[in-house]
Amino acid sequence: MVLIGPPRPRRTTAPPAAPRAERLAPGLALAAAGVAVAYGIHRLLPAVPMLTAAVVLGIAAAHLPVTAPLVRGAARPGLSMAGKRLMRLGIVLLGLKLSLSDVVQLGWQAVAMVAGVVLVTFFGTQWLGRRIGLSADQSLLVATGYSICGASAIGAVSGVLGKDGNDERHEAEVAASVALVTLCGTLAIAVLPLLRTPLGLDPTEFGRWVGASVHDVGQVVATAQTAGPEALTKGVLVKLIRVAMLAPLVAGVALSRRRADPTTSTARPTLLPLFVVGFLAMVALRTTGLLSAPLLDAATFTQELLLAAALFGLGSAVHLPTLARTGGTRTALLGLASWVLVAGVSYAGVLLTGSVTALSTP
Predict the structure, then answer these.
(1) Cα dihedral sign for 44, 49, 50, 56?
(2) 150 and 183 Cβ atoms separated by less than 8 Å
(3) Which one of 17, 20, 157, 160 is least enclosed by Cβ atoms within 10 Å?
(4) Does the structure show a pLDDT above 90 at 161?
(5) What is the pLDDT of residues 78-120, one digit of tens each?
(6) How far apart are CA 312 and CA 33, in angstroms?
(7) CA-CA distance, 51 to 330, in Å (whole number)?
């Protein structure tokens, strides 16, 4: 006897992409509007970097009565996506700013100095963060931003921490770290040129100091150019060497997480994430010399737009009252201490490498 049960439900295909696009559209549209306003602010006030304006606008959007319901409601999926995915695309394009010939041109003394600054700032900031009672993740994120390249580095490292995509606490920690490092980098544009004469730095030394201590590439350009073209050239070269440290640092963080919890099977960070591979591929492509200047300029502009959209999304995740209750003052204190640390170590490194170069010159 054959038993005939109820008809089996027909196998359905994956849901169409339209619902997902509809969920993301409000947030992406809001991020695009934020980028447009940030770009306008930068054009009107060139001293205000577009990335800085984007972070501030994102934080404002999360708190203004007109936009706050949208940020926390319909726009949240798109804003979260911008803060993660667009950040990674921007990091990939960041690789086009660096070629291996830049490293050779700078010399081994400067490369060693940059590596030393990165290591001391990275581990020193984490130690300070733990001493004042911040979480390991928050200390790590601040340390990464101040030691490498600001918001881009924070976004890169946050991607290998194995956090759930809906972890609001983690998003808030990332956004707070980005806001801090962006604020200090912006302040550096005004503060560091005032210190050049009292510290006795010539244009070349000043450029190297700026490149080793200021966080974002655009902020380095704005700060170093105050001392002339030689300072600007040295500053950008040193800064790009710091950017090159991003790949080994991300790999190191991922490896340490694996060793700390080898049994974790879910959300396990890969040793070298795909976007870091893309960053290295872009460095290799730039090294070939095949890319034209207009193409590189277009890539730089696109990278700025992507990072601005990502930072707007991250800024919109900041809730200031909650941040104040969960260690906002301590986070700000760590950011200030890390800024002083990276500036002091960089200054010592510039003086030391200058002495070594002078002794080795016949």
Answers:
(1) negative
(2) no
(3) 17
(4) no
(5) 888 887 788 788 878 878 887 888 777 777 888 899 999 999 9
(6) 10
(7) 24
* Pair of tokens at residue 66: 């007109």
3-state SS assignment for residue 291? coil
What is the CA angle 277-283-287, rounded to 5? 145
Location of structure tokens 């949240």: 76
Paired tokens of 315: 């800024």
Contacts by 124-130, CB closer than 8 A, 24 or more apart:
124/338, 124/341, 124/345, 125/334, 125/337, 125/338, 125/341, 128/334, 128/337, 128/338, 128/341, 129/334
Most distant CA atoms of the chain, gap in Å: 101
Q: Which helix (H) or strand (E) holds 139?
A: helix 136-147
Cβ contact 134:327 at 8 Å: yes
* Exposed / middle / buried, residue 23 (Cβ in 10 Å: 0-12, 13-18, 19+): middle
Hunting for tokens 């204190």 — which residue is that?
333
Closest CA to 114 of 234, 225, 278, 227: 234
- Positions of E strands within 134-203: none
The CB-side HSE value for 282 (13 A sphere, CA atoms) comes to: 24
Could you give the CA distance from residue 147 to residue 118 in angstroms, rounded to a whole number? 5
Distance between CA atoms of residues 239 and 216, nearest Å? 8
Q: Of 112-121, 129-138, 274-283, which gets the smallest average pLDDT?
A: 274-283
Give φ, ψ of 360 to 5 degrees: -85, -10
- pTM, rounded to two decimals: 0.70
Instruction: Compute the distance between CA of residue 101 and CA of residue 288 in angstroms, rounded to an integer.
Output: 10
Q: What integer is the mean pLDDT of 39-48?
A: 87
* Amino acid at position 21, single letter: A
